[in-house]
Amino acid sequence: MTSLIDAAREETHMHLPSITATYLAVLALLYTVLAVQVGRLRQRDRATFGDNGSLQLRSAIRAHANFIEYVPIITLMVAMLEMSGLATTWVHLLMGALLLSRLLHPLGMYAAPNTLQFRIGRVGGITITFILLIACALMILSRSAGMTG
Predict the structure, then answer these.
(1) Residue 50, Cα to own-chain centre: how many angstroms?
(2) How far apart are CA 63 and CA 80, in angstroms?
(3) CA 99/CA 120 separation, integer angstroms
(4) For a designed S-S bond to 107, which of 78, 121, 128, 149 qualifies (C-beta 3.0 to 4.6 A apart)?
């Protein structure tokens, strides 16, 4: 029984992911802007469901949906990394890159295809997002292997 208590004392304590939470709050505000834009355009175009043929509404719906498709999983992975003791500089870099990608992507969604704004916004935003997905997953796997191996 004593050895079990001693082992519990030796464990490293996780801390709350306060850096990730701060960036997540900013991302939540951006998400709200995207959601309000969809609602505004739905009212304007009288489109209760779907996009009613409106290219602008379709772009707003996709920008909103794309945000919710990627932000939760990346944020969760960064929070896990932060709680496991990842250096604060890395947490800021990862969450800063996520914020940048999520700011860029909607700008590209509203641009004409094959324009500079399109390439920088949409292509740049999703490229950063995919890099984050892969990097975070590999960092978690690497840290997990180091803890068990």
Answers:
(1) 25
(2) 26
(3) 15
(4) 121
pTM of the model: 0.85
- Which contacts (CB < 8 Å, 24+ apart) does range 105-114 have? 105/63, 105/66, 105/67, 105/129, 106/34, 106/63, 106/67, 109/59, 109/60, 109/62, 109/63, 109/66, 110/56, 110/59, 110/63
Three-class SS state of 6: helix
Length of the chain: 149
Q: Which residues touch 129 (CB under 8 Å, ≥6 apart)?
A: 70, 74, 98, 101, 102, 105
pLDDT digits (tens, 9 = 90+) for 86-136: 999 999 999 999 999 999 999 998 888 889 999 999 999 999 999 999 999
| Domains parsed from the chain with CATH numbers | 18-143 (1.20.120.550)
Tokens encoding 50: 């779907």
**In 46-123, which residue ranges form alpha helices assigned H by DSSP?**
55-83, 88-109, 116-118
